[in-house]
Amino acid sequence: MQLHCLGVSGYHPSQTRQTACFMLPELGVVFDAGTGFHRVRSRIATPELDIFLSHAHLDHVVGVTFLFDTLYKKETKVRVHAEQPKIDAICQHLLSPLLFPVAPPCQFVPLKGDVELSGGARLRWFPLKHPGGSVGYRLDLGDRSLAYVTDTTAALNADYIEKIRGVDLLLHECYFPDGLDEFAHTTGHSCVTPVAQVAKAAGVSRLVLTHVSPLDDIEDPIGLEIAQQIFPDTILAEDEMVIEI
Prior knowledge:
With 245 residues, this protein is of the alpha/beta class. The protein contains six helices and 14 strands. The strands form two sheets. Strands 6-5-4-3-2-1-14 form a seven-stranded mixed beta sheet. β9 (134-141) and β10 form a beta hairpin. The chain is globular. 46% of the residues are buried.
C-alpha cells in the first residue's frame, strides 16, 4: 500500500509545497482536498474515489472545486466524506453560486461511524481540538495501518493518542518549529517536540511530519533533527513523495 503526498503545506501553497492532500491510489482514498488535489487525476486507479475531509478550512477543501478537471473523461464515482456541519459550510459558502456556479460531480456523505473500504480496509475517525473542529482518521488494512492527524495541537494528554496507538505510519501536522507553543495553542496547530512525543507515547512505527508553515519555504522549516532525537524514525513529507506502508 502506497501513500502519495500530493500537498504538504498548511494555510497556502508555496513555491515547493501545495496544501493538504494525501492519496492511497490502490484503495481509491484521499485525505483532504487542498491545492495538492490537482495531482489526483493522474493517480486514479479505481472506479470509485472516497475523499475524507478533516475539516472545512480552505487549505483542506478548495480542491473539491477541481473535480471537473480531475474527472474529465473518467467514469469515476466520487464521494466526499465529512462531518455534517462541514458539508453544510462547504455547500453554502465554497459552492455558493456567486463563488462557484456549478455543483461539482460528487456526493457528499456525512461521517457516521466506521467506513468500510475496498479490499477489506476499515476507516475510523475521531475528533480533534481545533478552532471550528477537526477530525483525524485511522485506516487499517490487514496487518498495515496509518493515521492522519492534522490541524490540532499535539500534547501528551491528547485524547486521540489512544486512537492512533500502534499504527505503522503516523502522518501528523507540524506547522511550527519549537518556541511558538503559545501561538500554536491559539491557532490549533503543533510544534515539533510535542508531535514527536505523541508519536513515541502512541507506540507508532514511523512518523511523517506535514502541514508545515509556508512562510519559510526551505528544506526543513520545522527542525527535523529535534523530532528525530525524540523519535528517530521521523521524516518530513514533501510534495509528490511516495511512502510504502
